[in-house]
Structures are given as structure tokens and as C-alpha cells.
Amino acid sequence: MTTEPGRVALIAGGSRGIGAATSRLLASRGMRVVVNYRSSVEDAEEVVASIHARDGEAMAVRADVDDPPQVHALVEAVATRWGAIDVMVNTALIPYAIKSFQEMSWEEFGGKIHDEMLAAFELTKAVTPAMIDKGYGRIVHVATDLARHPRAGMMALGSAKAALVQFTRYVAQELGPYGITVNVVSPGPVDTRIGASRSRELEDRIVASTPLRRIARPEDVAETIAFFAGDGSGFLTGTCTPVNGGLAMD
After folding, report:
1. What keywords were assigned to this record (predicted)?
2. Which residue range forms the structural domain that includes residue 165?
3. What distance in Å separates the CA atoms of residue 200 and residue 13, rounded to the nearest whole number?
4. 3-class DSSP state for residue 141?
5. Which residues pair with 243 in a beta bridge?
């Protein structure tokens, strides 16, 4: 299936979990995929190799996306090889503290919000000039249902992602006249390496509370991201779409 052949897609955090699944899926649809990673070079190279094995186009580029000079170097590296970026998907996972409010310091709480928003801001800022020139662009940020549905110990992540959702709405409003859509995909619990730290008891409770009776796979989230990265979503912008099997219904 090649619905958007030749378009250049940057996947921030594209070497693991949801990012890796998205990288593979967009490549299967004919996009040239940039697998961004911060430290997991082996994982990034494995994703690129799997895309090449299916005759897709991909390259891995290291950059810490909450470091502005590295973000700009990343975009320049892509431009040198393939030209302007058409699609930017931000799945990058920035570390955060899992603590109660009483235990958490301002540095841990405020630091997570700062790093999350700096990455989203710089990535979006770096790719939009070329998108404006083309009159086309797709930007997708990945949040979490914790932005709307609090869970013990997750206030730093949930608050940062809530800020990300509102940032997306403002940017969508400004960039819409240029043919650029900006949306959020907001998964619930996902079966990834991080999700593996959940206890079996907690996972059983989540499954029992989910109408579709399972934990999401990275591929489930990637399918929704791919929709917003493609032409079929051309009249959707500023949205926040949950991918949680009905666990939380807004």
C-alpha cells in the first residue's frame, strides 16, 4: 500500500515502541522515514534494516530532541539527503519522575514540563518553514490519556502531556491557513518495554476495565498516527484522539 509515496517523515523517538511501529508502518506506505533516536543506536539500526528488507527507504539520525541545536542539525541532515520534511511525528519519550505530589520536587515536576514542551516546540518550529513553503504538512504529537485521567504517581507526565495537547491546538490554529495539520494521538496503556514494568495484577485490572479486553499494541497506536500523517486526515486539525480500547471514554 503506497498512499503517500516519496514523502519524507521524521519520527522523533522512532527506534522503540510506538515510534518503531510508526516508522515501519509509514515506510510500508511509501514514505521515506527518518528514524530519530537519542541513545538506542542498535534499535534504530534494526528498525532501518527491517524497512530496507522490505524495499523501503529509511535512515537513522541521532539527536536529543530537547536540545535545540541538535534538533536543527537533525532537520539539516534530513534536508541534505532527502529535502524538506513533509511529516513530523513526535513519539519521543523524555524521562520523568513517578512520585506523589508530596514527594516530588519542583525540579522534577517543572523540569518534565520544560523538557516536554521544549522538544515539541523545537521540533515543530524546525519543520514548519519548509511545510509553509510547500503549502502542505502533517504534524502529530503523541500524548497519553493521563493528560485527562489522573493516576497515582503520574502527575509530572500527565501535566506535561496536557500542556502538549493545548500547545497543539494553538499551533493548529496558526498553521491551518498554510495547509498544515497538527494533531495529537493519546494512547492509554501500551504493551511496550516501559509497560512491562506494570504488575500482572494491574494489567489484569486494566484489561478487565477495557471494553476491547486487551492492552494496546504499539501497532494499534501507529495505525492512528499513520491516519493523521496521511492525506485522509486533511480536514482534521487541532484534535486529540484517544487510542485506549474504550478504557476511557470522553
Report:
1. Oxidoreductase
2. 8-243
3. 27
4. strand
5. 187
CA–CA separation, 90 vs 109, rounded Å? 21
Q: Minimal CA–CA distance to 21: which of 234, 224, 228?
A: 224
Residue owning grid cell 495505525 = 223
Contacts of 177 (CB under 8 A, 6+ apart): none
Mapped onto helix, strand or coil, the DSSP state of residue 123 is helix
What's the gap between Cα 104 and its chain centre?
A: 26
The answer to whether position 1 is within a domain reads no
Query: Does residue 3 lie in a domain region?
Result: no
Residue where the block lists cell 510508526 = 22
CB-CB contact of 96 with 113 (8 Å): no
> Which residues 6+ apart lie within 8 Å of 35 measured at CB?
11, 14, 15, 19, 20, 23, 44, 47, 48, 58, 59, 60, 61
Q: What would the pLDDT profile of 135-163 be if each residue is shown by its tens digit?
A: 999 999 999 988 888 999 999 999 999 99
The domain tally of the chain equals: 1
**CATH number where 92 lies:** 3.40.50.720
In a domain, 131, yes or no: yes
| Residue 249 within a domain | no
Residue linked to cell 541545536? 69
Give the bridge partners for 180, in sequence order: 137
Residues 118, 76: Cα–Cα separation, whole Å: 19
> Against a cut of 0.90, is the pTM above it?
yes
CB atoms within 10 A of CB 83: 13
